[in-house]
Amino acid sequence: MAHPAQLGLQNAASPTMEELLHLHDHAMMVVFLISTFVLYVISLLITTTLTQTGTMNAQMVETIWTVLPAIILILIALPSLRILYLMDEINNPHLTIKTTGHQWYWSYEYTDYEDLTFDSYMVQTQDLAPGSTRLLETDHHTTVPVNSPTRMLVSADDVLHSWAIPSLGLKTDAVPGRLNQTMFTISRPGLFYGQCSEICGANHSYMPITVEATNLNAFENWSTTMLQL
Ligand SMILES: [Cu+2]
């Protein structure tokens, strides 16, 4: 999860997010190089009084400074498109979970099981266990096995919501009457926090998402205890 005054993105917990972090760093390198060059030219312009006429009518230099930015843009666009289509791919999921956004909680249905459904409400500040995070902890964690391709179906019951977990690189709109799907594989065990990411009403800030990645045994234990509830 994010820490106070964090500037960058959260650490990656899925291959998708790792790719996104690489794209972010790549784009930032381009931004820094261009900014440095522009800053250098501006400082030259304001500190030099001489006028040089070398570039007044130079077809060659015109061609270069038109084509070069186009190439730079393509070098950013192509990796971006690659990740976009990778994220869209649904490859034989081991598990399918359906989540529905409500005002103001998320409900989950594990459709591979007979009757595994639950609502996930935020834990109120006064009820928090020591060490847990305010406004992010939920009473029921969405538990998934680690390293398993998981399909998430996202919908809403009342208004627009958005199911988002930054460390997994996920953000899927929850639209009433529409079923969106997204795919993730969590690469390490842990608790991953997210929040509703579509302004959905008065308690929009109070419907967090907690995904817990465990090994397969712990997941089986969790599912049997949830079935007995
Ligand atoms: Cu919402």
TrEMBL record:
Name the domain of life this protein comes from.
Eukaryota
Every copy of the Cytochrome oxidase subunit II copper A binding domain together lies at 92-225
Which segments does the entry list as coiled coil? none
- Catalytic reaction list: 4 Fe(II)-[cytochrome c] + O2 + 8 H(+)(in) = 4 Fe(III)-[cytochrome c] + 2 H2O + 4 H(+)(out)
- Which InterPro entries does this one have? CcO_II (IPR045187), CcO_II-like_C (IPR002429), CcO_II_C (IPR034210), Copper_CuA (IPR001505), Cupredoxin (IPR008972), Cyt_c_oxidase_su2 (IPR014222), Cyt_c_oxidase_su2_TM_dom (IPR011759), Cyt_c_oxidase_su2_TM_sf (IPR036257)
Query: Cytochrome oxidase subunit II transmembrane region profile domain spans which residues?
Result: 1-91
A Pfam family that the UniProt record links to this protein: COX2
Q: Which cofactor does it need?
A: Cu cation
GO BP terms: ATP synthesis coupled electron transport
Major subcellular site: mitochondrion
Q: Name one GO cellular component term.
A: mitochondrial inner membrane
Q: Which GO terms describe its molecular function?
A: copper ion binding; cytochrome-c oxidase activity; oxidoreductase activity
Q: Where in the cell is it found?
A: Mitochondrion inner membrane
What are the record keywords, sorted?
Answer: Copper, Electron transport, Magnesium, Membrane, Metal-binding, Mitochondrion, Mitochondrion inner membrane, Respiratory chain, Translocase, Transmembrane, Transmembrane helix, Transport
Q: How is the cofactor bound?
A: Binds a copper A center.
Q: How does it sit in the membrane?
A: Multi-pass membrane protein
Transmembrane parts of this sequence: 27-51, 63-85
Main function? Component of the cytochrome c oxidase, the last enzyme in the mitochondrial electron transport chain which drives oxidative phosphorylation. The respiratory chain contains 3 multisubunit complexes succinate dehydrogenase (complex II, CII), ubiquinol-cytochrome c oxidoreductase (cytochrome b-c1 complex, complex III, CIII) and cytochrome c oxidase (complex IV, CIV), that cooperate to transfer electrons derived from NADH and succinate to molecular oxygen, creating an electrochemical gradient over the inner membrane that drives transmembrane transport and the ATP synthase.
Give the family, as the similarity comment puts it.
Answer: Belongs to the cytochrome c oxidase subunit 2 family.
Record-given protein name: Cytochrome c oxidase subunit 2
Origin organism is Hemidactylus bowringii
